[in-house]
Amino acid sequence: MARYQAPRGTQDVLPEDQPYWRWVLGVAHDVAARYGFQPIEVPVFEETEVFVRGVGTGTDIVEKEMYTFEDRGGRSLTLRPEFTAGIVRAYIEHGMRVRPQPVKLYAVGPVFRYEAPQAGRYRQHTQISCECIGEADPLADFEIMCMAWDLYAALGFQAVQFQLNSIGCPRCRPPYIRDVLVPYLRSRREELNALDVERLQKNPLRVLDTKEPESQAVVNEAPSITAHLCPECSEHFAQLRFYLDMLERPYELNPRLVRGLDYYTRTVFEVTAQGLGAQNAVGGGGRYDGLVEVLGGPPTPGVGFAAGIERIVLALKAQGAVPPPLPAPQVFFVHRGRLAKDAAVALADQVRRRGLGALVAFGERSVKAQMRQASKAGAEYVVIIGDDELAHGEVQVKHLDTGRQEAVVQAELVAWLHKRLTAAHSAP
Ligand code: AMP
Description:
This protein has 428 residues and is α+β, with helices and mostly antiparallel strands. The chain has helices spanning 18-34, 48-55, 60-65, 84-93, 138-154, 173-187, 194-202, 216-220, 231-246, 291-294, 309-318, 338-353, 367-376, 387-391, 413-422; strands spanning 38-39, 45-47, 68-70, 76-79, 103-112, 124-133, 161-166, 252-253, 265-272, 281-287, 302-308, 331-336, 358-360, 381-386, 394-399, 405-409. Adenosine monophosphate is lined by residues 82, 113, 115, 120-122, 125, 127, 281-284, 306-308, 310-311.
């Protein structure tokens, strides 16, 4: 066993897994661009307050999952547990409200949550997070969901499920909670799990998405918030569903899907995939019309979505998806003799300067062993140089797929390779 291991809940993404990652990230960047989202980078850590206010004190994240530390200057900082709060902080800080609205931003990178590690749940995971800030139109909610849809579809996902709910706004949610939900939950209090009885005191809405088995019967029969939305929220929800239906994006209404904070408004959705076991959420999002204000900006609507790359990769593997391979150096130099090796080093340098990939065999192994290395390295062409051929100003070039071999004048080798390797697709 190695003396040191990656910290609990973290993992190394080894070269053999990188094709999946490149694939997913490539598709994510393409989809974001197609919807007019611009990339942004925000720091890996922020002032703790940004997350306490921006994610919310009633959440699991803030209550028990943040990596918070004091820096040497005595400031309280926190490793980002999600992107939205930091992106909204940047939107406010850089006065982006004077830009044409909405401002559509997306970011990709690691986020940190002190969770109990298990399959598909890590303490460091990677998110792509898309935020559309400054637009209240339900079309913005639709676009965000559609983008998520396109992301999974472009990766060939089979059977993703979209669950959708509306949790209203600060005008209609409190009366629903106070006059409808709480009295109902209280009336069946004895049937609830102890944790949910506690939630009923602190944040009753969260009882709805409880995972506790004993509480299921009670929450399944709970009166749903969508029957108690104000006319504006109701209209917003209807319009979003109209777009989803019009473009045939299937979803399931789930009145138990919630985010228990005041500044999350209206739309909430979650995307689940098969083959992941308990941790089957591959993405989720919703509207946060109160968030900009909570972080010190002017009232500004917003809606966003985040997807977890690790779980997407796990799901792709479970579905047997094959990612496009990463490019390997196209040319491998095999040499026999001292002068030949020096020539190979110089030629490889020229090949690389032309923008192609080239490898030279290390050491002085047999030609046969070097040929094996070339094919393991995934090269397309092998250039074989011997001291004898050099004397004639020639090298042998072998196309590994076809086995075809020919002599090429050494001075013309780089142009010869460049022509073949940059043609539509390199024919031998
Ligand atoms: P959330 O902000 O919790 O909605 O997370 C957005 C997405 O990130 C989820 O749908 C998951 O795909 C992914 N995710 C969240 N937490 C974890 C975790 N601990 N480990 C791996 N992926 C996660």
